[in-house]
Amino acid sequence: MRFQTVDELRQFLFDDSRIMEFKISEGQAEFKLDGAVVRAKNSQNSRYQDMCCGEIILQLEDVRIGRLMKEGMKYYDADGNMIREIPDEDVPAPAQQAVLKRLSGGKIFTIVEDDVDSGYAYEFGIDVPQEQDEEEVDTFWLCLFFEHATAMWDRYCCPADGE
Hints:
mainly beta; ten-stranded antiparallel beta sheet; 6% helix; globular
């Protein structure tokens, strides 16, 4: 890869990035994403403006899953009265591998950083098409703790937001 940064996640925007591939095993996680934005202050961005990049690989080292949760829903009628509620639900350990496989093909809609004493803690909000109806999505929150993050990409596509 032509460009590479280490521990500069704050200098990227991953909102609306499509997850082309996600792998996690033995303390390593890797996202292959499409649609990320390299911020102007990134050490590898000489354009001084936010730039879209093509495919980007995000590798996380010494990673562990803090939590994997499926977001619940509330259903309302046309008058605004709640019909039923499905609560948030932690994905139990035996089912986590199947859910993690489903993340490939999903879309990150937000990433939230949390303060920790050492390393990093990021919570990824990810919409994943349902298996029985791809028009509908399940929303998962994946909280990962890790020591280092390496981002790699080959090219810049265009300025972000039509700059």
